[in-house]
Each structure stands twice: as structure tokens, then as C-alpha cells.
Amino acid sequence: MIDAVARSEMVTGPIFIGGAARSGKTLIRWILSSHRRIAVSRRTDMWPRFYGRFGDLARTENVERCLAAMLDRKQIAALAPDLDRLRRDFRGGAPTYARLFALLHEQYAERCGKVRWGDQTGSIERYADQLMTAYPGARLIQMIRDPRDRYEALLLRGRPRPGAAGRATAEWLGSVGSADRNRLRHPDACTIVRYESLVRAPEETMRKVCAFVGEAFEPTMLQMPEARRYDAKRAASNDGTPISTAYVGRYRERLSRRDLAFIQAVAGRQMLALDYRSDPIHPTAGERVRWATVGWAPNIARLGRRGVLDASRRSSRGLLVPEEAVR
Predict the structure, then answer these.
(1) Stated pTM of the model
(2) What is the per-residue pLDDT for 286?
(3) Please, are residues 326 and 191 in contact by the beta-carbon 8 Å criterion?
(4) Residue 193, phi then psi, degrees to nearest 5
């Protein structure tokens, strides 16, 4: 799939980075933002929070209400748009939300000295159909991470509430389901990147990602020179890169046997389809009963009612196999 894109004409549409929380979206955003042509914004949430919420944007008062609400979000305010220019440019074309969002990002890319924009928004993959309709040439990169390591990373945020493993696993299954669905509907425009592939083989993985989005790979991308948050990791590494495998497999040191058995029991088929092998740990009958009483069952059932899990189960039938992913 990626080879076909690489052989096509240069792709110039926006680049969207999606996926569940703690899946590596920030890391790949900084790598792509280090490309001389690409500027990627952070967590603007324009589509989930503002799309279609303010009525017909052909009416000036609706545009103003939408802009005011958007600028209350610090991640959008940080783009520092020229509002007079934005209003003027918006009046000169179709009064759509997609175009308003694009104009904001285009200004940001221009101020960064870049010619192409992108956006990192969690779960933006849910809007893949709208994105591909609104932006010809758009590309969607969905980050996927081992659900056990992802859950371990979520636990670092604080003391987990009852049913946390169920919620986290349900979110992961929903994300995998979106990846399946989008790769079927938009095979040339949507791909997945495994976090583990990115940190274990960053150059190989980013060469494939660059081919997918239609850009030349630049080795300096991997140094992320403008990402100050990674300076400590960069200084500690032998090769000067802040990209590390230290967080791969850390779940084995930190997750309880019960949570590990639960995640593998519920998501094992989807994990295997993505080359995440289960550890030899199995739930007891008593644990299965307990799980049903602490909150995981309602979360799994909720996703089932929404049809998310039906989509994710396709992965166990071979629609999302490791050889097809960016690895």
C-alpha cells in the first residue's frame, strides 16, 4: 500500500495523527514537525469539539461564535492566528468548518516557515470519512501501541479507579476497530504505525511514513532539534537521538498478574493480529467473576452497542495483519 503511494504524484494534503492516549502520537508529531516542509499542531481537537457545533458558517455571527469558542482552547490560541486575515480569507471561499480549520493551520504553518500542515488530535481517526472528503490528498497516521504498555503508561497518571483496565482495553479495541475500518474505506490515505516499530527502527519506520505522506525522508528529523522536552533523553543516549525503547515491555515490571491476564483475555486476538504476543498468563474462574463486578463489562458492552468492537474483531480475521502495517 505504501509503495503504491510512493509511486504516485507528490501528496500535498494535510497530515493527521490519531490514536488512543499514550500511543506515541507526540513522538511522531515531533519527528514530522522536524521536517523542513511540515508543521504539525498539538491537540487542537477542532473536529471533535467544534465541527458543526455553531450552525451555518455563511452567517457572520456563527463564525464569530465559533472562533471565540475555539480561541478559548489554549492549544488553538497557541497557533496565534491573524484574525483579520482569517476572516477576510474565509469570506473569499466556501463557508465550511473544514475550510475554517484549514485556514487556521495554514497560517500556523506559514509562520513556522513550512508549506504543509498537520494536526495531532486523539481519536481523530473517527472523522476519517469527513477528513478525506474535505481535504483531497489528506493522510491519516494512526498510532497503535501494545495495550499492556499503554495501560501501564496510563497508570502513571495517578491511582486507577475501579474498572480502569476495562476502560483502557475498550478504548484500545475501539482504536484498532477504527484502524481496520479506515484502512478498508481509504486504503491509500490511512495507515497505522506501531509505537514499537517507531522506537526500535526509527529510520526504517520514518522512511516508510515519509513515503506514505509523499515527502522525502530527512535524517535530521530523528534528532527532533526543536523538541526541548527530549533533551535529557538525547543527552543520555549513545547515538544522540531521544528515541528510546525503554518503555517497550515495561508492563511486565508494573502490571498486576490479574490486569495482565484480563487484557490478554479480552484483546488477545486483536493483539496477535498486530504481532503483540500474549504472555503465558491465564485468568482464573474467580478473576473472571470479579472482572464483571468492577466495571470492565459495562465498558466492553458499551463499545459493542456502538459497533466499535464488531469492527475491531475483523482484525482477527486477517484484515489488519502485521505485514500491512508500517513496522
Answers:
(1) 0.85
(2) 73
(3) yes
(4) -130, 120
Cα–chain-centroid distance for residue 252?
24
- Burial per residue of 206-217, b for 16 or more beta-carbon CB atoms within 10 angstroms, e otherwise: bbbbbbbbbbee
Say if CB 41 and CB 120 are below 8 A apart.
yes
User: How far, rounded to the nearest angstrom, does the alpha carbon of residue 258 sit from its chain's CA centroid?
Assistant: 28
Question: 97-101, 158-162, 202-206 — which is least confidently predicted?
Answer: 158-162
Distance (Å, whole) CA 31 – CA 15 = 13
Nearest to 124 by CA among 21, 1, 8: 21
Residue 162's CB: how many other CB atoms inside 10 A?
11
Cβ distance 117 to 106 under 8 Å?
yes
What's the chain look like in SS3?
Answer: CHHHHHHCCCCCCCEEEEECCCCCHHHHHHHHHCCCCEEEEECCCHHHHHCCCCCCCCCHHHHHHHHHHHHCCHHHHCCCCCHHHHHHHHHCCCCCHHHHHHHHHHHHHHHCCCCEEEEECCCHHHHHHHHHHHCCCCEEEEEECCHHHHHHHHHCCCCCCCCHHHHHHHHHHHHHHHHHHHHHHCCCCEEEEEHHHHHHCHHHHHHHHHHHHCCCCCHHHHHCCCCHHHHHHHHHCCCCCCCCCCCCCCHHHHCCHHHHHHHHHHHHHHHHHCCCCCCCCCCCHHHHHHHCCCCHHHHHHHHHHCCHHHHHHHHHHCCCCHHHCEC
Query: Residue 139 phi/psi, 5° resolution?
Result: -130, 135
Count CB atoms within 10 A of the CB of residue 224.
23
Euclidean distance between the first and the last CA atom of the chain, given in angstroms as a whole number: 13
**Distance in angstroms (rounded) separating the CA atoms of residues 126 and 188:** 17
For the domain bounded by 2-37+115-324, which CATH number is listed?
Answer: 3.40.50.300
What residue segments make up the domains of the chain, in order of their start?
A: 2-37+115-324
- Res 4: pLDDT: 38
